[in-house]
């Protein structure tokens, strides 16, 4: 059975990256996957696994570093984090930080279907912070917000381009835009051309 060309190309690039890392061309820390612990609100109904898989694939294609999602426990959002029908962003992030008990996790995210109060509609997180909230409405939205928060973790700020993943209020971004090289420099291998994100 012939090997599909895209699988062959990916294997070739991965092998090249490994060789260059061993030879010191790439920093050793960038050769390891970005480890993201995922806690899921029990109320979420939808294909979270599909969203995580798509986010991992797109991050690798555009940034050149694989993402491994580590399954945390399903959780119930504590009542004290809720403000009416909304989940408090600041308190929520602080609470997620207390759950960073997954070995070697770089980032901890909570996926919830509840409205997130604060100054963002779909997700919340802080630049270089290790915790983030992701509101799940549909797969495309979840993929975009996961990538947006990983962008923040890798040092990116917001973009004024509505088509950028890093736009503050967009949930349908198609690229990392002007932050691509910055994210690659902090978290990836600078060997991939700009690729369109199509969640």
Detailed description of the structure:
The chain is of the alpha/beta class and 199 residues long. The chain folds into two domains: 1-29; 32-187, Collagenase (Catalytic Domain). It is built from five helices and eight strands, in the order H-E-H-E-E-E-H-E-E-E-E-H-H. The strands form two sheets. The protein has a five-stranded mixed beta sheet with strand order 2-1-5-8-7, sandwiched between helices. A three-stranded mixed beta sheet has the order 3-4-6. Strand 7 and strand 8 form a beta hairpin. It is globular, with a radius of gyration of 17 Å. The model is unreliable at 5-30 and 190-199 (pLDDT under 50).
List the defining traits of the structure above.
199 residues; alpha/beta; Collagenase (Catalytic Domain); 5-stranded mixed beta sheet; 20% strand; globular; disordered C terminus
State the secondary-structure class: alpha/beta
Report the span from N to C terminus: 30 Å
Number of domains: 2
Low-confidence region ranges: 5-30, 190-199
Give the number of helices: 5
**CATH first level of the largest domain: which class?**
Alpha Beta
In CATH, what is the homologous superfamily of the largest domain? Collagenase (Catalytic Domain)
Helices and strands, in order, run as HEHEEEHEEEEHH
Q: What oligomeric state best describes the polypeptide chains here?
A: single chain
Please state roughly what percent of the residues sit in beta strands, choosing from under 5%, 5-15%, 15-25%, 25-35%, 35-45% or over 45%: 15-25%
How many distinct beta strands? Answer: 8
Tell the overall outline.
globular
The biggest beta sheet, please?
A: 5 strands, mixed
User: Considering DSSP H and I runs of 4 or more, what fraction of the residues is helical?
Assistant: 25-40%
User: How large, in whole angstroms, is the Cα Rg?
Assistant: 17 Å
According to CATH, the fold-level topology of the largest domain is: Collagenase (Catalytic Domain)
Provide the spatial order of strands within the biggest beta sheet. Answer: 2-1-5-8-7
The mean pLDDT is 76
């Amino acid at each position: 059975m012939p090997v599909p060309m895209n699988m062959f190309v990916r294997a070739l690039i991965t092998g090249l990256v490994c060789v260059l890392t061993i030879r010191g061309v790439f920093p050793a820390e960038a050769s390891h996957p970005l480890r993201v612990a995922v806690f899921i609100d029990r109320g979420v109904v939808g294909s979270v696994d599909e969203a995580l898989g798509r986010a991992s694939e797109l991050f690798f294609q555009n940034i050149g570093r694989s993402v491994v999602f580590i399954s945390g426990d399903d959780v119930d959002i504590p009542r004290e984090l809720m403000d009416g029908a909304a989940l408090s962003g600041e308190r929520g992030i602080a609470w997620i930080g207390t759950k960073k008990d997954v070995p070697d996790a770089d980032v901890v995210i909570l996926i919830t279907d509840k409205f997130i109060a604060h100054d963002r509609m779909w997700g919340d997180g802080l630049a270089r912070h290790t915790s983030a909230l992701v509101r799940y409405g549909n797969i495309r939205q979840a993929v975009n917000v996961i990538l947006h928060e990983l962008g923040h973790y890798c040092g990116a700020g917001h973009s004024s381009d509505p088509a950028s993943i890093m736009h503050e209020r967009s949930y349908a971004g198609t690229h990392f835009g002007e932050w691509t090289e910055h994210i690659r420099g902090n978290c990836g291998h600078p060997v991939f051309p700009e690729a369109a994100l199509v969640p």
